[in-house]
Design a protein that fits this description.
Elements lengths: L30 H7 L6 H13 L11 E4 L4 H13 L4 E6 L6 H14 L2 E5 L3 H15 L4 H18 L3 E4 L3 H6 L12 H8 L29 H7 L2 E4 L8 H9 L28 H10 L3 H11 L5 H11 L7 H8 L3 H9 L7 E3 L5 E3 L6
Parallel strand pairs: 1-2, 2-3, 4-5
Antiparallel strand pairs: 6-7
Helix pairs in contact: 3-10, 12-13
């Protein structure tokens, strides 16, 4: 059997089957590596002054309203964003959290510690747990992503809050697709858009696609918190979303160092599918079975993502990264059992649905019916 349909970056370990847009140049270097080179060329002192001038435009003149909204999960990046926005630039942010109901203990503790550390007002929005269970099942069947509701929720509810509170500025961290795949250049100053939310973050699905399913019945009135505000409301309030990663030198490792100064703590034990203990502590399935589905679909997982980041930062070699990927990307994580009980599904049902989403660029079945693929270490 000959596959040979996937190639890997010559500098990091990113595959051409990437779940985020990625391109390869004539030297077989991925767009994320090429974009990351720009980090060394940017005048970050100048960018920081640009950010200061931008933020000054949104400060409440009479302190009668919040200056901005910062969507937060309580993670290292949330801590860094609040540190920057409140303690460095002196704004008064309203923190907004979408509760996906999959907390790790460390993540939940960090979220509460964050409020104490920074003294900010905080909206903690929790959808109906019954709805969350149905959306987990429904979206897993529909697109192989049980966490679709979380992606949609954190990209929608802060905008609902912005319209409700007449707050014009929403401040996010880094542009994930730019960081992972080099989707944009640092000269683009890309901002949050409804189009990016729908077409990329939400896989092209919106709230109305969840209504009327015959198995996991979801009603329209249950999806209110996933309905993006109207164009008229966005224009009336003047809502604008920016990424601070365009203005400061973004590094998850550095963000964690700063977060620890405010009492933030990393995971107490290692994950099954990645060596990093500083990322995705707000949702036990993000580094676990949700990420395993990325491996099933695209042939790689969170260990690959984290290795790529650390190779680009010069914290490990490509050979070291390959060894980590070889050991971790394929692992079926132990949090699966929590999720199966949560949604009332058997492992056999899970595997059958998961297999239906395998990307044929990556996977083929051998004569015995086993799924096989090209591997990075077989290059």
């Amino acid at each position: 059997m000959k596959l040979g349909k996937v190639k890997y970056c010559a500098k990091c370990v990113a595959p051409s089957s990437s779940a985020v847009p990625v391109e390869f140049d004539s030297d077989n270097v991925c767009s994320a590596c090429n974009t990351s080179q720009q980090i060394q060329e940017v005048d970050w002192d100048r960018r920081l002054k640009q950010l200061e001038r931008l933020l000054d435009q949104y400060k409440s003149k009479d302190s009668s309203n919040y200056d901005c909204i910062v969507p937060v999960s309580g993670g290292k990046d949330s801590y860094f964003q609040i540190h920057l926005i409140k303690n460095v630039f002196g704004l008064n942010p309203l923190l907004v959290t979408y509760n996906a109901n999959n907390w790790m203990k460390e993540g939940y503790d960090n979220l509460h510690q964050m409020r104490d550390a920074f003294g900010c007002d905080h909206v903690f929005f929790t959808p109906s747990i019954s709805l969350l269970k149905r959306l987990n099942r429904l979206c897993f069947r529909k697109m192989g992503d049980m966490n679709w509701h979380a992606h949609c929720g954190i990209q929608t509810y802060p905008y609902i809050a912005a319209v409700q509170h007449n707050i014009s500025l929403i401040i996010d961290g880094e542009h994930g697709f730019m960081d992972l795949g080099g989707m944009h250049s640092y000269s683009d100053y890309v901002e949050l858009t409804q189009r990016f939310r729908l077409e990329h973050v939400q896989r092209g699905f919106d709230w109305h696609d969840m209504v009327g399913d015959e198995i996991d019945k979801v009603e329209k009135n249950e999806m209110i918190s996933y309905m993006y505000p109207s164009d008229e409301d966005i224009r009336r309030v003047g809502v604008r979303g920016i990424y601070v990663g365009n203005y400061v030198k973004w590094s998850g490792n550095e963000n964690a160092r700063i977060a620890k100064q405010y009492g933030w703590k990393e995971a107490e034990k290692a994950f099954d599918r990645t060596y990093r203990t500083i990322s995705n502590l707000d949702d036990m399935h993000e580094n676990g079975i949700h990420d395993y589905m990325k491996y099933v679909k695209f042939g790689y997982g969170r260990a690959t993502d984290h290795v790529c980041k650390d190779i680009r930062e010069g914290k490990m070699t490509r050979d070291e990264g390959i060894e980590i990927v070889r050991k971790m990307d394929h692992v079926k994580s132990s949090d699966l059992w929590r999720w199966l009980e949560y949604v009332d599904m058997t492992e056999e049902e899970f595997d059958k649905i998961a297999d239906s989403f395998r990307d044929r660029r990556v996977w083929e079945q051998d004569s015995s019916g086993n799924w096989v693929k090209d591997n990075l270490w077989d290059e």
